[in-house]
Specification:
alpha+beta, Outer membrane efflux proteins (OEP), four-stranded antiparallel beta sheet, two-stranded parallel sheet, 10 helices, elongated
């Protein structure tokens, strides 16, 4: 019964300790989150940053300096460097200090014909300094070093890929703001035009020159354009917040974008673009290095078929006397040896590991071929999209000119009583759509 109580008490204390750890962890997390909130409050009360003319290149430079995800990924290169050093240290001797102390409550005894004889002492102490130097291990150490080096190359290429992705994200966010602002201007002008048109229809309605339907239709148009204007205004705020986060800045960071949405025609050199992609894509380089790493891992697995030879030297100090603190009672001996370890039979374990690494190597090689095909497809699609964007810009530019002329004629005709309210509304809507499509075409280009 006493044993059962002791076990129950032990488990009770264990559960209590676990609950205490959980409570402390959540309290610590709550305190950290409260600190984050207070920091946010202080930042909102501080003077906002302002940049008069922020170009795309300047925005990219800021993101490279302050973007949190990029800063976090840069830390991986230090981990990779440490892995390389670790693989180098495996070539060096391992030095181990070993010590022991034994106290016996009585002397060991040996039975003889003349009686018992005491053997040894009650106190025994020893200290050994042992060094082990690998001589041959089937090439595993060299392959391990090469694998770590290729691994560091992979990290570098992944970091470079992160820079390129961030550049694309910043550029997209930059032009998202430009496009959203242009569309905001379009909807604002459309709303003002619809409001002016409504005022004209209202005056005509009061004079009996417009029907109730015309008045209601113009009023609905004002409401719709106002709703689009408000919706677009919210989009501008969202894009600005996303852009500030990519730059690693406070969300209240104020800026004025220097670049504009404009069309710049240029020659598309397909062969040169394709060549640059295959030579410069960091994800392709990373896949090449992954194959190289896996080849070294296969070599490490194959090295298990070969013997491992090590050299070992040891200096031992031992005291086997009751008065072990006396220096001259310590005995010294130095030993050296070369020992060989060779696992000749292990029930197919080595063969299984080699097969695993060989399968992984084939997997990496297939993935390398796949990314080559993917890059080829992506470049072709990008070139086609660019060509389509150029044609889209040219067509929308002409369509916008026609829509402006149509709206102008509709406005003049409505004032003179030659055009109906429906025709003017259609012309205004067509003008708004043409402007929106034109700016979207510039954005895609």
């Amino acid at each position: 019964m006493t044993k059962f109580k002791a076990i129950s008490l032990f488990f009770f204390l264990l559960v209590l300790t676990s609950c205490s750890i959980q409570t402390k962890a959540y309290k610590k997390l709550e305190k950290e989150n409260e600190g984050t909130f207070q920091t946010w409050l202080r930042q909102n009360n501080e003077i906002n940053y302002y940049s008069e003319n922020l170009s795309l290149n300047e925005a990219v430079k800021i993101s490279y300096t302050y973007n949190k995800k990029l800063l976090a990924s840069n830390e991986k290169k230090y981990f990779a460097k440490a892995k390389v050093l670790e693989s180098l240290y495996n070539f060096l001797p391992a030095i181990e200090p070993l010590g022991s102390y034994t106290y016996l409550d009585s002397h060991a005894k040996l039975q003889t014909n003349s009686g018992e004889i005491k053997v040894g002492k009650k106190e025994n102490a020893s200290f050994t300094l042992q060094a082990t130097q690998p001589i041959f291990n089937g090439g595993a150490l060299l392959s391990g070093y090469r694998a770590s080096r290729y691994g560091s190359f992979i990290v570098n290429e992944n970091i470079l890929s992160g820079y390129q992705k961030l550049y694309f994200e910043v550029a997209k966010a930059y032009y998202d703001i430009l496009l959203s602002r242009k569309l905001l201007e379009v909807f604002e002008l459309s709303y003002k035009s619809a409001k002016e048109h409504y005022d004209e229809v209202k005056i005509k309605h009061e004079n009996g020159l417009a029907s109730d339907y015309d008045l209601l239709r113009s009023e609905v148009e004002v409401t719709n354009f106002n709703a689009n204007f408000i919706k677009q205004k919210n989009k501008v705020s969202i894009f600005k917040t996303t852009f500030s986060k990519l730059l690693g800045m406070n969300q209240d960071y104020q800026f004025n974008l220097e670049n504009i949405l404009e069309f710049k025609d240029f020659q598309i050199e397909e062969k040169e673009i394709m060549k640059t992609s295959f030579l410069s894509r960091p994800d392709l380089k990373a896949k090449h290095f992954e194959v190289s790493v896996q080849k070294q891992m296969l070599n490490i697995a194959r090295s298990n078929y070969l013997p491992k030879i090590n050299f070992q030297a040891a200096q031992r100090w031992g005291a086997e006397d009751s008065n072990i603190t006396t220096p001259d009672r310590w005995a010294k001996d130095l030993s050296a040896r070369i020992f060989l370890k060779w696992d000749i039979f292990d029930f197919g374990n080595k063969r299984s590991k080699v097969r695993q690494q060989a399968a992984l190597l084939r997997e990496k090689q297939y993935l390398l071929k796949d990314i080559k095909e993917t890059i080829h497809l992506e470049v072709e699609q990008a070139i086609l999209n660019l060509k389509d964007a150029i044609e889209f810009v040219n067509s929308q530019k002409l369509d916008l000119k026609r829509a402006k002329n149509a709206l102008m004629l509709a406005q003049v005709g409505f004032k003179e009583g030659l055009k109906s309210q429906v025709e003017l509304s259609d012309a205004l809507l067509s003008m708004t759509n043409s402007q929106s499509l034109y700016y979207q075409a510039l954005y895609q280009h």
